[in-house]
Design goal:
The protein has about 220 residues and is α+β, with helices and mostly antiparallel strands. The chain has helices at about 1-15, 40-45, 70-80, and strands at about 105-110, 115-120, 125-130, 140, 150-160, 165-175, 185, 190, 195-200, 205, 210-215. It has a 6-stranded antiparallel sheet, with no helix packed on it. A 5-stranded mixed sheet has the order 4-3-5-6-9, with no helix packed on it. The model is unreliable at about 1-10 (pLDDT under 50).
Length: about 220
Amino acid sequence: MEIEVEAGINHKRSRRRPTLSASPPPQSKRSTRPLPSQNDAYKGTSTHPINPSEISTETTVEKQKPNYAPTGLLAAETNTVAHTSIVLKYHEPPESRLPPSSQPYLLYIFKSSTLLQKITLNERSCWLFGREAMVADIPVEHPSASKQHAVLQFRHVVKKDEFGEKKGGVGLYVLDLDSANGTFLNVERVEGRRFVEVRGGDVLRWGESSREYVLLVPPKEMV
């Protein structure tokens, strides 16, 4: 009797379904390679091999930096004369100065041997010559002259004397504004956009005009 009961018990046990144990999820295998140097990574010179699966497919778009440089239109707008469409071709340089009042600079305008006008240049540091009457300080009516032909500019310049010592002073210079027919100093045509010193007794002409502009600078003892 005991044997049958035990057999029955064993029979029932054999019919039980085995319980399934939950297996842990597979873990990703971590790389055992050494980490690249941080400095090399910044410089882009790392010798660490790159796994293609580690490369990002996202494209990094570099932002364009703002450009604050003045454009040609902005420069033209800045140089435009108020209430007109005239764009000035010249602006005074940093070394611009008024001449000393103790040393008068006199400009005589002649046509043939006739004196047409006498101008004291000490009143301002720059004088513009040309056919554009709205901007010219001294208008030039001859058709061969450009609208903005040339300027007379007082400048503070440092020079070396015969002993090699540096001395500064204010002098008068002529500058041709790339005129079509040129600026002439004592018959010689001056180079465009280049300051050339004008001294007492020098004669200036604009284009093919026959008018002569003579500079006279009286000695200081005569003032």
